[in-house]
Each structure stands twice: as structure tokens, then as C-alpha cells.
Amino acid sequence: MNFFDFIRSVPDVVWSGLLASGLTLGGVLISNRSNKSRLEMQLNHDATIKSQERTASLRRDVYLDAAKKMPKALSSLIEPSDRDESFTVSPGLSDFFSVAAQIQLVAEPVTASLVGELVSKYNDLLMKSAFSRAVLGKAISDRNGWERKCERAVSESERVLLELNRLKEVPPTDSKMIDAVMGSYERYFNEAEEARLALNGAETRVRVERLNLLKRLLPNVKDIAEFQVSVLIGIRNDLGLTSDVELLELQAKKELTIMENTISSLEELVDLYSGDKF
Predict the structure, then answer these.
(1) Which of 61, 90, 180, 207 falls 20 to 30 Å from 79 in CA-CA distance?
(2) Domain assignment present for 181
(3) pLDDT of 183 strictly over 60
(4) Phi-psi region of 275 (alpha: psi -120 to 50; beta: other; left: phi over 0)
(5) Is the predicted pLDDT of residue 255 greater than 80, yes or no?
């Protein structure tokens, strides 16, 4: 019996069973492949969603922190501490630079670029105002020094005055001792008066240099304030809060108009009270 005879001898029911089994197996394989593909797509989708949720959570925390620190950065720049002699970067600016670095790690490329440009604007303004800031720092240092001298002289004069009163009240009085104590009192009193006069002059100098620094900063303040609005809009876009962008821009324009009026008033004040006019 050759091969073809063998094939013909196989009953049709066997061939039907084999064909049905083959079709079933093919269907199972196709179904498994389809299920595997759908499962991979679902897993990839879930992983993408989880990644987006983690990113959104990180952004939300960082962006909320940035929203609080950006206004403080600008205000600390134009309203420096009255006690800072070294006049290094203020805490408000340092905090903003720190949160800006965090934003650039989690933000979309466009927003990260905007934040980087904003940081550059702040750094540029710090460099431009470095000399004025140093002069103001020196004026504050001198003022603080005279303030300490005045406090010491007043304290010593009060101490000597108490001693003088005690000597006068306790008999027998020693006129030489009283004269010596009186001389000490007059010396400390004169030192206190001299320190007060110097302190008044130092206070005036601090006000003048503060106004000079403000005059140096004002032309750039509006530019930074306007750019911060662009950064805030970018942040809102990253968070998916795009519905109120037009309202935010309108509100920002109103605030900038108020700022322009304030800056104009401050510039007039600086021109009026700076230099020898103060």
C-alpha cells in the first residue's frame, strides 16, 4: 500500500476531526495572541496613567510651593531687609531659586524653559544692582554700628547717673567722688549725644541708598512681573488648568497696571529724596 492509498483509506470522520481540531487550535492561538496584545496595551496604558499620576502629584506639590514663593521673591528683591549688613541673596530669592530648580526637573519643556529664563532675569538684575546693594549694605552696617555705640553710651550714662544719685543720698557725701562721677556722666552723656547725631545721619544715608537701589531695580521689576505671569500660565497648563487662562491674563493686566502706577510714584519719590535733596 502506497502513501496515497493509505490516505484514501482513512475515514472521512477522522479527517473532519483533524480539520476541526486544527481550526480550533488556530482560533485559540489567534485568540491568545489577541488577548496578549490587549493585555500588553492595558498594562502599558496603566503604567502610563500611573506615571502621569506620579508626575502630576510631584508637579502639584512643587507648583503650589512655587506659587507661594514667586511673589515673595519679587517683593524681597525690591524690599531688602533693613538689618542685613552683608546684603547677600535674600531668603525670599534663595527659596525661589530652590523651587525653580525643582520645577525644571518635573515641568514640561516649555514651562521649564520659561522658569529658566525667569531665573536668568533675576540673576541679571542681581548683577546689575550689585554695587548699589553693596553700598546699601555698608550704610546699614555703619548705621548699626552707631546704633550700638549709642545704646552703650546711653546705658553707661544711666548707670553712672544712678551711682551719682546714690552718692548724693548716702551721707557723708564725698565731693571729690561726686565730681568724678559727674565727670563720667557728662562724658557718657556727650558720647550718647554724639552717637545720636551720627545715628540720625546714618539713618538718612540708609534711606537714601535704599531709594537709590530701588531706582536701580524699578525699570526691571515690571518686566519680571510680566514674565512671571507667563510662567504661571505655563504652570497652569502643565496642571491641566487651562479653562481660566484668559481670566488670569486679565487679572494680571490689572495688577500690572496698578504696579506701573506704583512704580511711577516710587520713581518720583526717588527723584525727590535721593542725593542731596534728602
Answers:
(1) 61
(2) yes
(3) yes
(4) left
(5) no
